[in-house]
Inverse folding.
């Protein structure tokens, strides 16, 4: 794995409705141009720390990362309430307005890709290029109703038993390949210890992932028509190790479905869902090859 020296990040905060966001800027915003705009790297609910390795591969770009509301250093007024894609998109819109250097390029992975698609649909002038990597938009899939039922079961488990049992169900769910079977809800619950989780309930109900699921999560649809109308160039990414359009993990299947709906060819990125990670959260993908693919996508000609 290769990392590259680059400017140390400058950290700032931004008050938005119901929350205070914390974000980092690597480089001088004043040096950006319309042909070389800032590059945002986002996840949801992944905080900015998850993009340290990927950001290091772009020392020649001004790179912006942020902690979504209720994640990492960011806060919100109601930490146990649902957070919707629309709220996350409004937060991003406010952040881009504060940067004042748009339209920008954005790489969004997983929930961050869903949020970015919501941003394009609602604020079509904010982004020049969006690279949406494995968006878990289950509403695009033929087993959407079963996916929504499993998500509801995860939330019920969280409310009833706490973080460990709910996360064990979530991890098993996102690792499953192919459509959700009809008897999925009747299957034995996974042991949290299998994933290094505790089965004890600590009483907390402020987990940011669960807040996102409560706000929509896999039930979220993508406004394909609005995204297609926007001037933003949308590139859909899928992981080489995540499986295909019918036999893959849910996020990969959603990526293939989104690409088909938009009439574009998906770009296959090295690794799987965590392909860009370089040891963050104890996970390592193929960050060097992943960053090279992302650079090639970003530097390909942008349609006028």
């Amino acid at each position: 794995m290769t990392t590259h020296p680059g400017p140390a990040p400058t950290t700032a905060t931004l008050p938005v409705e119901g929350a205070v966001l914390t974000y980092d800027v690597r480089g001088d915003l004043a040096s950006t141009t319309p042909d070389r705009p800032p590059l945002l790297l986002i996840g949801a609910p992944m905080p900015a720390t998850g993009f340290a390795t990927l950001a290091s591969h772009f020392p020649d770009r001004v790179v912006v990362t942020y902690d979504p509301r209720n994640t990492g250093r960011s806060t919100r007024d109601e930490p146990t309430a649902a957070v919707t894609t629309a709220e996350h998109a409004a937060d991003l819109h406010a952040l881009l307005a504060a940067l004042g250097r748009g339209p920008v390029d954005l790489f969004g992975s997983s929930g961050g890709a869903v949020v970015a698609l919501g941003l394009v649909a609602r604020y079509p002038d904010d982004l020049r290029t969006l690279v949406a990597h494995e968006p878990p938009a289950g509403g695009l899939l033929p087993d959407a109703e079963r996916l929504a039922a499993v998500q509801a079961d995860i939330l019920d488990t969280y409310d009833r038993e706490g973080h460990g049992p709910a996360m064990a169900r979530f991890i098993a769910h996102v690792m499953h390949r192919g459509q959700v079977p009809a008897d999925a809800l009747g299957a034995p619950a996974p042991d949290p210890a299998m994933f290094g989780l505790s089965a004890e309930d600590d009483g907390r109900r402020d987990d940011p992932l669960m807040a996102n699921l409560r706000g929509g999560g896999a039930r979220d649809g993508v406004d394909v028509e609005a995204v297609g109308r926007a001037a933003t160039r949308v590139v859909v990414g899928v992981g080489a190790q995540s499986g295909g359009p019918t036999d893959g993990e849910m996020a990969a299947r959603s990526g293939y479905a989104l690409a088909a709906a938009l009439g574009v060819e998906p770009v296959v990125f090295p690794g799987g869902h965590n392909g860009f990670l370089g040891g963050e959260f104890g996970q390592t993908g193929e960050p060097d090859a992943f960053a090279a693919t992302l650079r090639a996508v970003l530097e390909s000609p942008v349609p006028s």
Q: What stands out?
A: The longest helix spans residues 144-161.
